[in-house]
Amino acid sequence: MQIVTDKNKVALYFKDNAVSYKEFILNTKKIKQYANIKEFTNNMIYMENRPELLYSFFSIWDSRATCVCIDASSTAEELSYYIDNSEVEKIFTSRGQLEKVEEALTILNKKIELVIVDDVEFNKIKIDENIESNLVINSPEKEDTALILYTSGTTGKPKGVMLTFDNILANVDSLDVYKMYEETDVTIALLPLHHILPLLGTGVMPLLYSATIVFLDDMSSVALIDAMKKYKVTMLIGVPKLWEVIHKKIMDTINSKGITRFIFKLAKKINSLSFSKKIFKKVSEGFGGHIKFFVSGGSKLNPQITEDFLTLGIKICEGYGMTETSPIIAYTPKDDIMPNSAGRVIKDVEVKIADDNEILVKGRNVMKGYYKNPEATAEIIDKDGWLHTGDLGTLKDGYLYVTGRKKEMIVLSNGKNINPIDIEAKLMSMTNLIAEVVVTEYNSILTAVIHPDFNKVKEEKVDNIYEVLKWSVVDKYNQKSSDYKKILDVKIVNEDFPKTKIGKIKRFMIADMLEGKIEKKERKPEPDFEEYNKIKKYLVTAKEKEVYFDSHIEIDLGMDSLDMVEFQHFLDLNFGVKEENLISKHPSLLELANYVKENRNQEKIGNLNWKEIINKDTDAKLPSSSFLAIILKFISCILFNTFFRVKVKGKEKIEMDKPTIYVANHQSFLDGFLFNYAVPSKLVKKTYFLATVAHFKSSMMKSFANSANVVLVDINKDIAEVMQILAKVLKENKNVAIYPEGLRTRDGKMNKFKKSFAILAKELNVDVQPYVISGAYELFPTGKKFPKPGKISVEFLDKIKVEDLNYDEIVSKSYKAIEEKLAK
């Protein structure tokens, strides 16, 4: 069967060189003659994307032999397995990969003929006149094994997928229905051609339809856009990560101005492709102005991206499949885009949904089997010929919807199933500070592992990423989710997740990543200059961790907000560098050290002195009265005596005349009201509560705070200033009531105490009085709009004298006193 014929046009572009169809076929024939490929043999292609890869590929097919395409980034050890398992007779490679090939052969102690494409002198090879007069490339026969491609599984050795030429032809015929390719098309071989999606989509099929392929010498985003404009690219195949990056960049630009946000919303409401193309013409021109549609494959695309691109006048056709199905199972027609769907099931293919919702496939596209592995073949293709994809999904009105991966479903000890992809999508939709997130079961609890978008973190001047993501994103998600779907732990990582070559996250490696078991790239030599060495020494001492030049100061070293205050005072004392958001602007050790080196303005040696910080005067105004606090105390008496039946113990331990720091476990929204109810009115008048500005945004709420002894602070801005305000209260012989956990419990258990109260107590020699709240969480937990009736108890414990204790001892004694009482 003739598959590539001579056309009077360009077949390939590479490094500004144009290769015509005539040249392409001649070069293919010359490599075939040079290599002397034998029928029905297995021949490996192991090289980077370049024209010679396709010359080699089609020369093997033209010889009626089998192509074994291998990832050019494979190590010599990995390559040795592929060579041995596939029983190849020849290896087509490049000078750039030759060293690894030779090392792999040494491991195997084998000699295999190598075809080094850089050494092929095409101009000197003469071919038969009959061939030159009839320039065509032929395919293998339909039943022949045309391809062997290796899949990387989560366990065991990779398996070689055998695809017949008819398997591949099934995909070609099915896409012909949708007119995916036309002779006038120009596409870019963006993804590595060892993978079935780019191999067929950007290597084989464009040539079958006499279209044109562009190879990039530089894989940067700038080079991609330049090539799209220069070569008038009409369609592009990419993985979801590519569209996510492009989408984010476009939407950031649109959302940066009110007028563009309005136009985008208007276009979304009008929902007209022709209107969107006109109004967002510049977006299309940014891609060269000739794009007909994009194609996304490899994994599921966020439907919001598909919808937003449609609003911009650009179509994204999503496909779904796997190597074992050559690869397509379903594809989205370009004139019938359905966001969130994997597309329509292609012709000559049957799909059914099993009882456990697994997607099963049967048809011309299903592989011949795994090479030399009948056991593995029998595991994936049942006796009735159905291939079990391992994916979960539904069929609706001819469209296939993929809802998750069977192996990735999290099965809890109570038998409940959780689809992590759904939760991940919800978390991503709640903030622009997340680049990637994986929800997984780690240490037997549901955990969100988050890789932040550090550019956004820097832009928005976020100094405490962990706190923001945990409480403003994950906690908000938890409040609206079922108990068994709640995320109980958050891990922030400063590195990309491990991925396959086409961008799929290797979920099975996330635990190893968290435990530091994944080998990191070799680090550059460590810098050696005064500022760097001094800052590094401080961080190593403060956090008792290894510190590297590329360590992210907050995430890698686990710096909390108080650590940040101490660190920034260290920078001020030693280098005279003091400014807001210093760490968010320069988040890594080396970035910060370089900035300090360039901007230091004094040599001031000293140590952090909390006494000095706390005793510094502040202009902050305290609330003007406790009028509302007293009124609320009397109003709440009815509620607390009847509905909640509050019992107060230990009132005799309260001292009225000495300034005191009251600390308690934080159970519910009721806690502040419970304190005021439990103590005499005289004490209410002279006790101040701390609250975050975020909860008192309106003028009415600010007025309430000002009349109820509520001090409003921005914890994330400057903790030193917060400490000075609290110190001012205590110095005026008044009291402070603090919940050292920071936020209300989400599960009824106590969280770690922050030590700010201990610093205040120690430096001002003020007693700490712990008190215990019990029952409030059960009656009015976070996320509930209304409480339920029941019993609550408030018990005041013995005061803690702080004179002979250090900060950590004060924290520990306070925590243990409350914890032990709760346990009883």
TrEMBL record:
Alphabetized InterPro entries for the sequence: ACP-like_sf (IPR036736), AMP-bd_C_sf (IPR045851), AMP-binding (IPR020459), AMP-binding_CS (IPR020845), AMP-dep_synth/lig_dom (IPR000873), ANL_N_sf (IPR042099), Plipid/glycerol_acylTrfase (IPR002123)
One GO CC annotation: membrane
The keyword Ligase is annotated on this UniProt entry: yes
PROSITE patterns: AMP_BINDING
Keywords, comma-separated and alphabetical: Ligase
Record organism: Fusobacterium pseudoperiodonticum
Protein name as it appears in the record: Long-chain fatty acid--CoA ligase
GO molecular function: acyltransferase activity; long-chain fatty acid-CoA ligase activity
Phospholipid/glycerol acyltransferase domain segment(s): 660-776
Catalytic activity: a long-chain fatty acid + ATP + CoA = a long-chain fatty acyl-CoA + AMP + diphosphate
